[in-house]
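so the lab meeting is tmrw and i was supposed to have these ready like two days ago... anyway. pasting both below. for each one the top line is the aa sequence and the line under it is the structure tokens. i havent really looked at them closely yet so no promises
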Amino acid sequence: MIPTPTGHGHDAPRDADGEPHDAARVPCRHGRNISLAPLELEDAELLRRWRSDPAAALEVGAWPSSLHMMSERVERYLADDDRDDFLVLLPDGTPVGHAALVEENLSDGTAEAYLLLDAAHRGRGVGASALDALVDLAFGDLPLHRVEALTHTGNRPALSVMGRSGFVREGVRRSACLHRGRRYDQAVLSLLRPEWEALARPRSWEHPPPS
């Protein structure tokens, strides 16, 4: 079970920089060695820090902002009925990323997947586990038919994670990203419900809580 202490004791969850993270977390989904917990307003500082990573601007179009601006952004996230936002937690409760389904359209059965990890936890399989849990929500609990994901064409780590989760690259939006004065093409990937159903892997609800 993931600990949910409220103080700064020895066993309190800490963020990737070792700082105590106060929010008591009740995970709503589990995956391979990760859990997802609903995003809360007090998570704005974590998101601000992760988005301030230099690579984030290129990989997900993020840019540094003040804590006040980030808090307002999180408030908008939480008030938006067309998105679901989560913190990605390690087995010990450490928050290491932000995962979301955005622009959910239940009539059309579509949504876009979003994932941003702390730089210190990339390349360790956390992203693939979080993305799997996210698409299991989309197809296992929501009536979605298509989940889309976007990244620039040179973002090989992200493209690899999406491929491992079953996403199919279907096109390119030419010159769609701007980063430090240079334009980049944007890859468009998607996962359809029949493709998810054919994936030979356990679903997130089949994983026991990380311990």
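ok protien two:
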Amino acid sequence: MADAATVRCSRITPAREAELYAAVLDLLREVGYDALTMDAVAVRARASKSTLYRRWGSKPELVVKALRHQKPVSIGEIGTGSLRGDFHEMVMHADDCRMEQHTSLMRGLAMAVRGNADLLCALRELFEPETIGLDRMLRRAVERGEIRADNPTLEYVPQMLVGALVVRGLIDNQPPTQAFLTAYIDAVVLPALGA
């Protein structure tokens, strides 16, 4: 009987799996984790609920797999020769639409990750390549002498950037944009770093 279950599960092609994950992420952005249901995913993805449970077992497992399926933009290889140039290039890698999607996703998961270690881990994994790339950019700026190695702001740059994206909608009721993030970097992040 296990062979029959394996055959049924293997019928989902990688392309179909990507469609299902996209439906999950879209719903997360729209309604948040708590309001997300397997029924809603089934309707959105035009799939049966039994297929979802057979393949993923539970809502948390499906959401974690959907988050891990995303491929974040890599900023690790950016190297313009200046920290300001690197930051501006980093912003250009994430178009306005992608920034708004990431921000909506973070808002949709903000409360749920507090009580679900797997979700928190998946969300951190999603942003880890960007965090590592940002750290690499900052270390190069220190090596070039643009910022001091003992500047306490270095530790908080990821929070500053993510915070700016998330709070933009709350305070200004505006989506994050390349123009906003570029201006924020020039007015807040670079001066805080002493660059």
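from a quick look at the 2nd one: Confidence is low (pLDDT under 50) at residues 1-9. The chain is about 75% helix and 0% strand. will dig more after coffe
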